[in-house]
Prior knowledge:
Layout: H1 17-23, H2 34-43, H3 48-52, E1 58-64, H4 68-74, E2 83-94, E3 103-109, E4 112-118, H5 123-129, E5 135-140, E6 142-145, E7 148-152, E8 156-158, E9 168-172, H6 181-194, H7 204-210, H8 215-223, H9 235-260, H10 273-279, H11 286-300, E10 306-311, H12 317-329, E11 334-338, H13 342-359, E12 363-366, H14 374-385, E13 390-393, E14 407-412, H15 420-427, E15 434-439, H16 445-452, E16 456-460, E17 471-476, H17 480-492, E18 496-500, H18 515-526, E19 531-534, H19 540-552, E20 557-560, E21 573-578, H20 586-593, E22 604-609, H21 615-626, H22 630-641, H23 666-682, H24 689-700
Helix pairs in contact: 6-8, 8-9, 9-23, 11-12, 21-22
Amino acid sequence: MIPRKFSFKFSFKRFPALENFLNYPLSSLPGVGPRTRMLLKNLVGDSLQDLLFFFPHRLVERLYFPSIHAYLRSAHTLKEDTFITLIVRINQISRPTRKGGPIKVHVEDDTGSFDLMFFNSNFQYLQKKLMLFQDVLVSGRPTFYGKKFQINHPDYIGAPAALPDFRGSSPVYPLTAGLSNKVVASVTQTALKMAPDVDEWLRPELLQTRQWPSWKEALTTLHCPKPIDFLPTCPARQRLAYDELLAQQLTLLLSRTTSFTKSGLSTPASTRIPSFLKSLPFELTVCQTRVFKEISEDLSSSRRMLRLLQGDVGSGKTVVSFLAALQISDQNAQVAFLAPTEILAQQHFKTMSPWAESLGLSLDILSGSSSQRKHGKDVKNRLKEGVLSLVVGTHALLEDDVIFKDLRLVVVDEQHRFGVEQRLKLFKKGRHSDILAMSATPIPRTLQLVNFGDMGISVLHEKPKNRKPITTRVLPLNRIDDVINGITRILEKNQRIYWICPLIEESEKLDLTAAQERFLSLQHVFGEKVVGLLHGKMKSVEKENVMSSFARGDIQILVSTTVIEVGIDIKEASLMVIEHAERFGLSQLHQLRGRVGRGEDESSCLLLYAEGLSEIARSRLSILRETNDGFKIAEEDLRLRGSGDLLGVHQSGYDIFKVADLYEHKDLLEMAQKEARLIFEKDPHLLSEQGVKLRNLLSLFNRVHVLEYLTAG
C-alpha cells in the first residue's frame, strides 16, 4: 500500500472509492493470472490506474472476405498494413522442420489455401486448441512471398461466431513478447466496466461549453477510438488532458503552500556588492543586473524565496548566484551549491574561489570521492560549527552526516538532474532556507507553467559581450575524413577540440561509433599524447585527471560521451564535433555546442549524421544550423519531441503526462492554471463539497501520494 503522509489538513483517512479501485493490482481482474500479470506489469505497471491510462496507439482496418479467392482478387488494391478476416478449415498442423523454426498450420476453404505460421510457440498447446478439419475464424496481417501468402501469428483464431468483432476498425495497443492485443483489450474493458461511478468534479458550464463527456466516457472512448479520437482536439482526449493538467496544477499549489507560506528570514542587501562588481574583469549585462535585483528583493522579503533562474548556455548564471550567496553570507549564514556531477562542482569551485578569497569568505568543496576522507570530514565539521560560509558539492551534500549550523540559501544547479526527494532532503537541512534553482537548459513557457507555475522565474537572455556566435555546419558521416584533415589546422593554433560519440561501447543493435573506437582511431592519426578519452564509466579521479590535462593543453582532442554536456568551461575549445547527431535531442545538441565559443577564438560545431534521416531528425539539425537561441530551440524541441521526452524528462524530475500534450494543449494548460487558483482561493484544503469531488481527480492521476515530495520544488 502506498504511504500517505501529509503536513496539512487535507486528510485521506477515508479513501474515496475511486482511489481504492485505482490502487488495486492487476491480479484483481478476472482472468489475470500470475503470468499475464507479470507481462502486463512489465508493459504498463501493476495497478488498474496504470492499465486505464495505457491507450491504443493506432487503428487497424480489418476487412472480411467471404473466401480466400475473394481476398486474392482484391489483395493488390489493399494497403500494406490492412488486416484480413477469413473463415477457413484447419487441414494440417506441422512441427518445425528445424530448431527454432515455425509451427505451420495449413488452412483452406473451397477456393484456396494458405499457411498460418507460429514462431516460438508450443506445439502441444496449438494441437490441442486447433482441431483438424474444424472451421475457424482467422484474423491477421497477410504477408506475400511471390504469389503465395501466409499470416504470421494471427491476431485471432477461434470460433466463427466472433466475426462481428473482427470487421471494420479495431484498436491496437503497444505490446510486448507473449502478450496479445486481444488480452490487453479484454482486461482493459473489464477494468472500465468495474470502475466506480463518482460525482463529477468539473463545473457543469465548462462541460457544456466544451461539449466534453464524463471522465469515464472519455476513457472508454480512447480505448475504443475512431480515427478522429487520435486527434488532440477530440472531446474525449481534451477532457482527460484538462483533467490531468488541473490535477497537476492543484498538486503544485497544495504542495508549495505547505512549505513556502512559512515565513523566512529577511536578509538585507550586501553593502560589499558594488566594490566586488568593480573588481571583476567584466561588467554584468543589463539582464544579469535585473535578475540579481529580483533575487535580492526575494531574499530581503520575509517570505521564503522559491525562484528559478534559467539562462542559455554561457549566459552568466554562476556570478549571479554568487551575488546571492554574498548577500546571505554577510549575515553569517551559510550557502550550499548543489551540482549534479563532480566535474561541474569542481568547475564552480574553481570559478568562485578567487571571488570568495577577495572577499575573505570561506569556501570549500564536498564530493563523493572526498566525503569520507580527511578533507571531507574537515568540511563537515566546519559546516556544523558554522565556520564555513559557502560549500559547493554533489550528492554528498545530501548525506545524513552533513549538518549545517545555519543553512539559509540552497542553490541547485541543473535542478532537473536531481530527483524531487533529493532536493527536499537538502532543503530540510535549513530551518529557513531560500531556494534558487538554476537551469542551463532553456525551458519552454509551457513547461514553466507546468512545473514552476507559482515560482518566481528569472531569465537571462543575453550572453556576455565578448562572446562570438558559434558557426554550425551539418555534414554526412561519409565526410568524416575531411573533418579529421581539417583538425590539424586547429591543433597548430593550440586550440582544443571536443569529439562527441553517443555510446560507450559498441552495440549490435545501434550502428553507432563507440567513444573507445573513435579514441583509438584519432590516436592513430594524431598521436597518443594528443587525444584523451572521457566517459561515464570512468572513476571520478580519472575524469578529473583527463579534464585537467585537457584544460592545461596536454590533451588537445577530447573524445567523450555526453558527460561534458553541462558546466565544462575551457576557453581554448573552439571546435565541437558530434557524431551521429541525429541520435541526440535538440536541446542536448544545443548544450553540447555551448561547450565551445567561450574564448576569443572563432568557434564551430560540426553535426555529423548518418544517411536516411527521418523528417524530424532533418528538422532538428536544420534548427541547430539556423539559430543559437536556446529558448527558440527549446520551443522547437517541445514541438518536435512532445513533452514526454523533452530534455530527457523521463530522468529529469519534470512531470510526464499520460494524456496531455504540452504543445497541442497549451490553451488547456492556461485554463487549468486559472481554475486551480480559483479553487485554491476558495478552498485551500479541499474540504468543501466540490473539494471532496476534486480529491477523486487527484486520485485518478495518481497525485495523492506525491504531495509531500513536490514541496522540494
